Amino acid sequence: MLAKRIIPCLDIKDGRTVKGINFVDLIDAGNPVQLAKHYAKAGADELVFLDISATLENRNTTLDMVLHVAEQVDIPFTVGGGISFVEDVDALLKCGADKVSVNSSAIKRPDLINELSKKFGSQCITVAIDAKQIECEWIVYLAGGTIRSELKLFEWAKEVEVRGAGEILFTSMNNDGTKDGFANKALARLSNDLNIPIIASGGAGNIQHFLDVFKDGKADAALAASVFHFGEIEILELKKELKKKNIEMRL
Question: Which 3 state secondary structure label does DSSP give 135?
Fold first, then answer.
C-alpha cells in the first residue's frame, strides 16, 4: 500500500503567503520561504506553492522564490500559477521545482497538458481543478475561482487524465477555508473514476477530517493551509494519529 501524503499549501500573493475563505478575504500567513523550511523539518511529505494572482495579473510565477525554496527544502515541491507554455515549466524545473501545477491555462488550451506530459513526463504534471457545487452539479472555475467555465468536474477530470496528467489537485470551493471537512463524496467519485492520484484540498479543520478524507474520500494525499500556517495542527502529530488509525504514513 502506498503511503498517504500530507501536503501544506502556500498560496502566494505579492511575495507573501496568504489564506482566505472560499477564495476571498485573504489574510497574511507569513514568508513562503521560511514556512517551506519549517514544513520540510516538521514532516511534510511535499509542498505546493500556488501564485494565486499570477493568472489574473497575466504574469509568470516568481522564479526567485522557487530558487530560494529549492535551496531550503529537501522534499518535493510543486509550483503553480501563470504557467501557459512549455518554456514556463522548463524554467521552473531548472530553478528547482519538482512538479508544476496548471489550471486556467489547461482549461483555455487543453492541448497544453499533452505537450507538458510529452516533454517532461506525466510525473511532473499536476492539473489543479477548482470546482464549486451548484445544486447537484460540480462546475469548474478558473482564474483563482473568479470565472465560471462550462466544464463539469468529473468529465474534465477524466479528460485531464487521458491527456497525460500525473495527478489531480481538486479543491472544493464550497469547502475552502471553512474547516468543516473535505468534499469526500466528490473525492471518492474522482478516485473511483480515475487511475491517477487525487490530492484533496479545501476544508481541513481537525485531525478527524484528514482521517475521513483518506477513508471516505479515498484521497491519495491531503492538502491544507491555515491549520498548518497558524499552528492549529502539527504535521508530525497528525501523521502519528493517522498511523494509529491504520492509515499508511511516512514518519
Answer: coil
Residue 247 CA to residue 29 CA, distance in Å, equals 29
Give start and end residues of each alpha helix (H) in the chain: 32-42, 63-72, 86-94, 104-108, 111-120, 153-163, 184-193, 207-215, 226-229, 235-244
* % of residues, the chain, pLDDT over 90: 76
CA–CA separation, 46 and 44 (whole Å): 6
Please name the residue that has the C-alpha cell 470565472. 147
- What does the domain layout of the chain look like in residue ranges? 5-244
Q: What is the pLDDT of residues 23-36, one digit of tens each?
A: 444 445 568 888 89
Please tell me the pTM assigned to this model: 0.92
Active site residues: 11, 130
The CATH homologous superfamily of the domain defined by 5-244: Aldolase class I (3.20.20.70)
